[in-house]
Amino acid sequence: MDSINFHHIPVLFNESIEALNIARDGTYVDCTAGGGGHSGEIASRLTTGRLIAIDRDPEAIEVLHERLDKFGCVTVVHGNFFNIKEILYNLNIDKVDGILADLGVSSHQLDDAARGFSFHKDAPLDMRMSKEGKSAADAVNNLPQQELRRIISDYGEEKCAPAIAAAIVKARQVKPIETTLELSDIISEAVPAAVRREGHPARRTFQALRIYVNGELDGLTQAVEDMFDCVKPGGRVCVISFHSLEDRAVKQAMAPLAKGCTCPRNFPVCVCGNTPKAKVFKAIKPNQKETDENSRARSARLRVCEKI
Fold first, then answer.
1. pLDDT of 4
2. What is the pTM assigned to this prediction?
3. Which of these, 9, 88, 166, 175, is most buried using a 10 Å CB contact count?
4. Cβ–Cβ contacts within 10 Å for residue 140, how many?
5. What torsion do the CA atoms of 29, 214, 15, 247 make, to the nearest 10 degrees?
6. What is the reported pLDDT for 108?
7. Between vectors from CA 290 to CA 184 and to CA 12, what angle results, nearest 5°?
8. How far does the chain reach from its first CA to its final CA, in angstroms?
9. How far apart are CA 82 and CA 225, in angstroms?
10. DSSP collapsed to 3 states, 224-250
11. Which residues of the chain have pLDDT under 50?
12. Is 178 left (phi over 0), alpha (psi -120 to 50) or beta?
């Protein structure tokens, strides 16, 4: 893997680095290290500290070694951050000072046509971040129509899900759907002309399939809770999401951590004994300059919570 070709534009870069509140002797985790943008900056700020850079993409792991091995403080781990507790346990790390997770698909994965994430370029219909398990082609050619409809509706928030699912099933009865443009054309023909004029009609369906194939929302709430468990008091969990479903899951995971007393308001004194576990900060959005320079930043949100 040529690291020169592994390009990723980190979103909310300065905001997320600042939110981590990096101490030179601290221990940090980059859960989705990708091309090493955030990780490189974190590592450069450490002296006696340590960084654990995790990614599930084998191509990213190769590049991370190329770009980060020069920092003696970095440990690169091939894995899924949903297993963060196990990963840290295997490294004999109890608690860390900060954790960053940049969710979703990387610029490299989108731009490399061969990975099958993009509806703009023809390639095998893959979409697997880890290059393991069932692909998007497996999903569209084998799942029942009702399940396809649910996935496209729930994960893509696509209003035309019933028509798209029906069109996919009809097409695969003639021949298997094998490429990104084949699927894109099927979707385009399935939706009304008015929908096609609103933007690329395949965008939401491709998002839905990507989320399904990679299990991006399966256990995300639990993963955020696990990240919080892994930080020390004063430590921060910083999560960047790119669509409303991710952001909602992150928000719902963090909100209860900031709740204190749950006694009825008419109780003169607290009897529940509940105290806030975290300070949750207001969500941070990209500024106009960033969205002008990088259209993929438009929907990004950074959510931060600090353990009390």
1. 45
2. 0.90
3. 88
4. 24
5. -120
6. 60
7. 90
8. 42
9. 10
10. HHHHHHCEEEEEEEEEEECCHHHHHHH
11. 1-4
12. alpha
Q: Report the alpha-carbon angle 226-86-255, nearest 5.
A: 5
Q: How many other C-beta atoms are found inside a 10 Å radius of the C-beta of residue 67?
A: 21
Structure confidence by residue, pLDDT tens digits, 169-185? 999 999 999 999 999 99
Please check whether residue 152 is in contact with residue 164, taking contact to mean a CB–CB distance below 8 angstroms.
yes
Radius of gyration over every alpha carbon of the chain, rounded to an integer in angstroms: 21
Q: Is 51 helix (H, G, I), strand (E, B) or coil?
A: strand
Which amino acid would we find at residue 157?
Answer: E
- pLDDT tens for residues 21-31? 999 999 999 99
DSSP 8-state symbol, 283? P
Distance CA 295, CA 105 (A): 14
Write down the pLDDT at residue 273.
84
Element (H, E) at 1: none
- Would you say 240 and 300 are in contact if contact means Cβ atoms under 8 Å apart? yes
